[in-house]
Each structure stands twice: as C-alpha cells, then as structure tokens.
From TrEMBL:
Pfam families xref list: HTH_11, WYL
UniProt xrefs under InterPro entries: CBASS_pafABC_assoc_protein (IPR051534), DeoR_HTH (IPR001034), HTH_11 (IPR013196), PafC-like (IPR028349), WH-like_DNA-bd_sf (IPR036388), WH_DNA-bd_sf (IPR036390), WYL_dom (IPR026881)
Annotated GO MF terms: DNA binding; DNA-binding transcription factor activity
Domain HTH deoR-type: 3-58
Gene3D superfamilies: Winged helix-like DNA-binding domain superfamily/Winged helix DNA-binding domain
Lineage, broadest ranks: Bacteria, Pseudomonadati, Bacteroidota, Cytophagia, Cytophagales
PANTHER family noted in UniProt: PROTEIN PAFB (PTHR34580:SF3), PTHR34580
Name assigned to this protein: Putative DNA-binding transcriptional regulator YafY
Organism: Algoriphagus ratkowskyi
Keywords recorded for this protein, A-Z: DNA-binding, Transcription, Transcription regulation
Length: 316
C-alpha cells in the first residue's frame, strides 16, 4: 500500500471509532509507530481536524466526515461473499438488518462494481448447516441480547439446561456473545447464581426486558472472561490413529472437537486433540465407527466400551 492510499485508509479508520490508538493503526497497516505519527501529522497539515490525546489516542473533531469513498473491485466482491455468509450465519431477523446496512453501503459503489455484483450474485451460494433448525430461535435471542448489551438492561429469561434438562428462571446482566462449535453463546452475570455463566442462545425459550439497568464497569470484558475460562478448563490430550482412507470423513468435524495437529505414520495418520469433555468426544468417536483407533487416554477407551455396552443393552 502506497502512502497516499494509507493516509486515506487511516482517515477512514479514524471515522469508524470514537478514539483510535496509534498502536492499533500501526498493527493494521503493518508500519512502525513513527510512520503513523508522521502520517497523522501529514493529515493535520492538510487540514484534517485530528485531535491527539496523550494515553488515549486519536479522534476527529465531532461532525467531520469524509465524502463517500469508492470500493475496489476486490472489496465489492468480498462484500458480496460476506452478505451470502451472513444470510445463513445470522438468521432471518439479524440478517435483515445486515442486508439493510449493505444496501446503504452499495449505494456508494461505482456503476462498474454495481454491475459486477449483479453479474456474480447467483454464482455464490451458502447452504444451510446442520444447525439450521435452531437458527430462528438463536437469531431472535441474538438480536434481543444485542439490544440488552447496548442498553445495559437486565433481562428476565427462561432457560433450558442441557444435562440434565431443566427449566430455570434467571435474571441476567448480558456482557457479550461469541460463536463457537457452530453455536452462539451469551456470557452474562447470573443474578441467581451470583456468578458469570455461559448460555447457548437457542436454549432460551423466553426472554424479556426488566426495568433494571446495570453498569458494565463492574464486569470483566468478554475476552478476559474467555481467557479465564480457558485457563481454568481441564483439557484432555487425546490421540487417535486414522487410516488414510478415512481422513476425509474427519476433515470438517475435527476442528469442532479440539484438533491440534496430525502426523503421517506409514499409511495412517496420528491426530492429536485437546478437549475438555471426554463424554462429548467419545460420542463423536462412536459416530466414526471403525474409522479411528483411540491411542490415548485410557479413560476414553474405557468410556467407549461402557457406552457401547449401554447401547447394546438398550437394543436387547
């Protein structure tokens, strides 16, 4: 990226947030802090009202805006792909808001880019995933919790736990949401348990706003919470041996089960996983049938034998 393009991109980035740190700009554009300082000084000299606050970062004077910036051909195509993905990933309700935002963005495209999007529109498809039956419920909860986080509003919910399956009434202070293992999760402070908990969005059967507000200042950030959970979680190292002909059947699902690495040994591949749930992992292994051999840990082999016996007894 040449300097002129970088200066324009820095100005666009400054408009995207209230305050932007120099280190953030340096990381994004892969340049030194000294280069960022020089670039910002150049923007100031050209008349851009940049405000620099020690220890805070850079911001633009309130009300200053650039005229619409044109997108490149590659950026326009990337936007189309993102639109296709979001239609399925977000569900109907949130996808509608996303598409409305994209229409406004597309309005500033050049005629050639608009024609290009029309031409390739039907050449890209995103098929529904196996989790699509829960998508509508997740989407409604996603939009609701997003508003709760924005308004800092305590929500009253009815939640169905997984194991054992129980219906509980809870008042939550939503902190953040994340996507993992093909599901959306909410991290929130549970007033009933007086502690932070993680909830699957599709397991909320009811949710409503209360008249109670809360302060986010007393809560940890979503990232710090996830880091803490990862540090406390007991992970099991699991090693499987897979014949080469069976590797293709694990290609997608391995990443949802803690895949770490693999090593070719003759006509077989040794795969290493790190997973916190022996029970969940062994049920995935059962679905693979005779395509894998458990090398370790012993506890996984023992639980597999127990589960197979339980299945056999159920069929007798």
């Amino acid at each position: 990226m040449n300097r002129i393009d970088r200066l324009t991109a820095i100005l666009t980035h400054l408009q995207s947030k209230r305050t932007v740190r120099a280190s953030e700009l340096a990381a994004r554009f892969e340049v030194s802090l000294r280069t960022i300082y020089r670039d910002v000084r150049s923007l100031e000299e050209s008349g851009v009202p940049v405000i620099g606050e020690a220890g805070q970062g850079y911001s633009l004077v309130e009300g200053y805006r650039l005229p619409p910036i044109m997108f490149s051909r590659e950026e326009a195509l990337a936007m189309l792909v993102a639109e296709k993905l979001m239609e399925k990933a977000l569900g109907e309700q949130t996808s509608k808001h996303f598409n409305n935002a994209l229409i406004k963005i597309k309005a500033v495209l050049k005629s050639t880019e608009k024609d290009l999007l029309v031409e390739v529109q039907d050449t890209i498809k995103v098929l529904k995933s196996s989790s699509s039956p829960n998508m509508n419920q997740s989407s409604k909860a996603f939009q609701f919790m997003l508003q709760a986080i924005s308004d800092k509003n305590v929500v009253a919910t009815t939640y169905v736990t997984f194991d054992p399956e129980q219906i509980t009434e809870r008042e939550l202070e939503p902190v953040g949401m994340f996507h993992s293992y093909e599901q959306w999760y909410l991290m929130a402070f549970c007033r009933m348990r007086r502690d932070y908990r993680t909830f699957r969005l599709d397991r909320f059967s009811k949710f409503r706003f209360t008249d109670i507000s809360y302060s986010t200042a007393k809560h940890p950030s979503l990232q710090s919470y996830l880091d803490k959970v990862a540090g406390e979680q007991k992970l099991h190292q699991i090693v499987l041996e897979v014949p080469d002909g069976s590797l293709k059947y694990l290609a997608n699902s391995k990443y949802n089960n803690g895949f770490v690495s693999e090593e070719k040994v003759g006509e077989r591949t040794v795969m290493t996983f790190m997973n916190s749930s022996i029970e969940g992992f062994v049920r995935w292994v059962i679905s693979l049938g005779d395509m894998v051999v458990i090398k370790k840990p012993t506890i996984l082999r023992v639980r597999l034998s127990e589960l197979l016996n339980e299945i056999k007894q159920m069929q007798e």
